[in-house]
Design a protein that fits this description.
Chain A: It comes from Sphaerisporangium corydalis. Chain A: It holds the Pfam family B12-binding. The complex is a heterodimer of chains A (155) and B (422). Chain A has 155 residues and is of the alpha/beta class. Chain A has one domain: Rossmann fold, CATH 3.40.50.280. Helix content of chain A is 42%, strand content 15%. By secondary structure, chain B is α/β, with parallel strands linked by helices. Chain B has one domain: Methylmalonyl-CoA mutase (TIM Barrel, Alpha-Beta Barrel), CATH 3.20.20. In chain B, helix 9 packs parallel to helix 13. In chain B, 59% of the residues are buried. Classes of the chains: A alpha/beta (155), B alpha/beta (422). Chains A and B meet through helix 2 of A and helix 3 and helix 15 of B.
Chain lengths: 155, 422
């Protein structure tokens, strides 16, 4: 391969952005969409109260380089388990990086404990608290630079 | 069967409060179990007189996912509100027994665009006050098409209105003045609130309230709430109505001082502008669902700030909010005699178009911004039937940093004490 080939422009990395089925909040989704677009991503923002089946359909229609769930209504930890189980059970989505962020529990003191559980359940990143946005930015950079992106992910 | 005691109604309580000029204060409280919910209501009642109880439902119930609400109850997972449908009417009647009475009415708050089962459950439990609307509970909170929400709300409002046959006056509040919580300019908040109040009246509801959520500038908010009163007086002549103010609904100050100072400002807004009721927020709003004790503190702080303030002597100078609101309302009313159909068409045509709203039926051609003086202004008016107040000085869309700045404007001001004297 010549250096010319390496520098060749790749298509933008593509993400599906979603809330959880019971979460109606959208300012968080709008912010995450803008942040991703500014970092060179193309984003399909599914908006509020996205049923699991809808997220699956959208992700299967065009397999994304990342799936991002943002939720702040306190039911996130409960609903995210169902979402990740459904995504990981689908062979073509099993290796797509999935990030989850926001406020995941009704009370803050429970949140730390559920982060590890959710990572164990299959999330590649669970982002809560003040560090969520900076960690998410670096995640975006890493995911966009991944050779072959989702195809070769999580070998 | 005895009908719900007429003297226990929300409507009668608010009528009395209005006559005596008391600012009624109300929390936004909802807990996942009957025992917690009852304890919350008792604490709210004890913080009175002049308080109204709230039963806020959980978000599984809001989207009609009763299976998940049941699963959470069985598993002991914490719900973010009271699962009224899953618990059933007898549990709710017992929960309210001896708490709800003539001096302490209770309102159910939910956020559902398909509220049939919720209305059935609250009416079966003997409750007579709730809130929402075909637009205000649809656009920000669901992906339900507007025409389906209108259909569902028409049906429940008519069913709710039939409570009158039992001697109770049912009360319905429009949540229209709270669209997306923040960054919706006042004229559109007023228009949606009044239109939903008229929609309820068209279904036979005789007691309504119209909401308005505190925004970014005290003077602008006062002008807006006065306009809301004037317009409602013209367009809702045959029903009983009052105005309810919501303490700021966007990103809340993180400091206790900032949060309580913002809450006090909302109580002063309510008093200055002649509103009858205030929905409070607590000092821990920024981080989690508040405890009962925090709610009680918020009710006391708000009531005290309300008592220390009185109606403004003169109206603030007009910046055209009332004219804009009347123009939007007039254009929607012209679309169809049936308000439900008019509202549906208005969204399709972009005559109603909420800035930054992601709902598939929202045209998405309007934008707002916070001007240098702190007022919320239109940056783009799309097809809204208004001329707007001039474009945003900076061309091009908002960046994520600018959006976050706008969303954090009030929080930052109050956390740093910049608004302390407002």
């Amino acid at each position: 391969m010549s250096p010319h080939c390496i520098a060749e422009k790749r298509p933008k990395p593509y993400a599906v952005l979603s809330s959880t089925p019971s979460d109606s909040h959208t300012w968080n989704l709008l912010f995450v969409q803008m942040l991703m677009e500014e970092n060179g991503w193309s984003v399909t923002n599914l908006g509020a109260c996205v049923p699991v089946a809808m997220l699956m359909d959208e992700s299967l229609r065009r397999v994304p380089d990342m799936i991002v769930l943002s939720t702040v209504n306190g039911h996130g930890a409960q609903e995210a388990r169902q979402v990740i189980a459904a995504l990981r059970a689908q062979p073509s989505l099993a290796r797509v990086p999935v990030a989850l962020g926001g406020k995941l529990c009704v009370s803050e003191d429970r949140e730390r404990a559920v982060v590890d559980e959710l990572v164990a359940a299959g999330f590649d990143a669970v982002l809560v608290g003040d560090t969520a946005v900076p960690v998410f930015r670096s995640l975006l950079t890493r995911a966009a630079a991944m050779p072959g992106r989702h195809a070769g992910r999580r070998a | 069967m005895t009908p719900a005691a007429p003297e226990g109604t929300f409507h009668a309580f608010m009528e009395r409060a209005r006559r005596t000029g008391t600012l009624v204060v109300q929390p936004r409280m909802g807990f996942g179990t009957a025992a917690q919910m009852r304890a919350g209501l008792i604490a709210t009642k004890d913080a009175g007189p002049g308080t109204v109880g709230t039963v806020t439902l959980d978000s599984f119930t809001r989207v009609g996912d009763f299976a998940s609400a049941g699963r959470a109850l069985r598993a002991g997972d914490e719900l973010n509100g009271y699962p009224i449908v899953t618990l059933g009417p007898q549990v709710t009647r017992d929960m309210l027994d001896g708490v709800r009475d003539a001096d302490f009415p209770v309102q159910v708050r939910h956020g559902s665009a398909s509220p049939g089962p919720i209305f059935a459950a609250l009416m079966a439990a003997g409750l007579d006050a709730t809130e929402g609307g075909p637009i205000s509970y649809c656009l920000p909170y669901s992906r339900t098409p507007v025409n389906r929400s209108v259909h569902a709300w028409r049906e429940v409002a008519q069913r709710f209105a039939s409570l009158a046959e039992t001697g109770t006056v049912p009360h319905l509040e429009s949540f229209g003045g709270c669209m997306l919580g923040q960054l919706c300019p006042p004229s559109l908040l007023i228009a949606i609130s009044v239109l939903e109040g008229m929609f309820f009246a068209q279904q036979g509801i005789t007691s309504v309230s119209l909401s308005y959520a505190q925004q970014t500038h005290a003077g602008q908010d006062e002008e807006a709430v006065r306009a809301l009163h004037d317009i409602a007086a013209d367009l809702l002549p045959s029903v009983s109505w009052h105005v309810v103010i919501y303490a700021y609904m966007g990103r809340y100050p993180a400091t206790r001082t900032g949060a309580l100072s913002l809450l006090s400002a909302s109580a002063r807004l309510a008093r200055r502008s002649g509103a009858a009721r205030l929905i409070v927020k607590t000092a821990s709003e920024a981080s989690q669902i508040p405890s009962i004790a925090e709610n009680v503190t918020a009710l006391r702080v708000a009531a005290r700030a309300g008592r220390a303030s009185g109606p403004s002597l003169g109206a603030p100078p007009s910046t055209g909010i009332e004219a804009e609101a009347r123009s939007i309302i007039g254009r929607v009313l012209d679309l169809h005699a049936d308000l439900g159909r008019a509202l549906t068409s208005a969204f399709a045509l972009g005559y109603l178009d909420v800035p930054y709203c992601l709902h598939p039926d929202n045209a998405g051609r309007t934008r707002s911004y916070i001007a240098d003086d702190g007022r919320l202004q239109w940056a783009a008016t799309g097809a809204l039937p208004i001329t707007g107040t001039g474009g945003r000085p900076k061309a091009g869309g908002l960046t994520s940093a600018e959006l976050l700045h706008a969303l954090s404007y009030v929080r930052d001001r109050y956390d740093t004490g910049a608004f302390a004297h407002q």
